[in-house]
Predict the 3D structure of the following.
Amino acid sequence: MRILVTGGAGFIGSHLIGELLKENHSVVCVDNFDPFYDVEIKKENLKLHSHHPHFTFIEADIRKREELSPVFRAHDFDACIHLAAKAGVRPSIQDPVGYYEVNVDGTLHLLEEACSHQLNHFIFGSSSSVYGERNQTPFSEEDALLSPISPYAATKIAGESLCHVYHKLYGIGMTLLRFFTVYGPRQRPEMAIHKFTREIFEGQELTLYGDGSSQRDYTYVTDIVQGILACLRGRGSFEIFNLGDSKSIALIKLIGLIEEGLGRKAKIKKMKNQPGDVPITCANISKARKFLDYKPHVPIEEGIQRFCKWFLENH
Ligand SMILES: NC(=O)c1ccc[n+]([C@@H]2O[C@H](COP(=O)([O-])OP(=O)(O)OC[C@H]3O[C@@H](n4cnc5c(N)ncnc54)[C@H](O)[C@@H]3O)[C@@H](O)[C@H]2O)c1
């Protein structure tokens, strides 16, 4: 297949492209090297694929339709896997307009291009944050999305709604994937696991927001990638899938696993909870199991060991 991956210079995208190329797909990656984190990391991510004959990189900004149109005109894509976004909950509170422009306007531009070029399948990288603040777990695809608590979550809900509209109006096959906190080698440096690992390793004080009881469903990146690949093989109707590990772990326990992985103790400073953070995430993955044969293979204990090993080898 000829596949467009947006945001492919980033963490999840760079893992995905590696696997797509292994499966003999042709991949065009669009990314604008957003400076949210060190651009050199993204350039290194791309170097992993740059030698591959079926890989093309195009520096383009999804906020600018005029930069996307030539990409769609030049390549007859079978599918688009849309991962480009401003990611992260807390920074979205400081920059809601910037998040809206990339995550909503940018998504709309891609959908317009998808429609003009009669794309068969559009896969949208959504987020567990769309479920917002709720006490009842696990979160299911059928739950109503009425309680987002960050601009980031609201932009992902808006992106999902637009995908639904373009499916209904133009028949584009749509798969919406709600990723539950993804981690693994090359994880974004500001994300909790990577940040805590760096701080513990460097002997810095680590800031823990809340009392450490908040829980997250962490998903190893290779499991997420397997879920995305399974969608490509799937049907072109409209489907939403949770991709998670379906187990939640308290933040304080997570820090303990990182301490074990590094063989060092954390110096912890506790601060009050941050706005935008939800108390718990946990995915019901029975739909993904049934239709995608999705099975997460890497439990958190093993994933953190692997992450720490990668960190120690690359820091
Ligand atoms: N990592 C997670 O835990 C997680 C969880 C849920 C959802 N997601 C979603 O998965 C996707 C990938 O996340 P990630 O962790 O790999 O993030 P990332 O920041 O590493 O990757 C996103 C990429 O998008 C690019 N980008 C940003 N703005 C752009 C623009 N205007 N035009 C073109 N490219 C642009 C960035 O340069 C970056 O390379 C995002 O849509 C994110 O919202 C991630």
Observations:
- The longest strand covers residues 121-127.
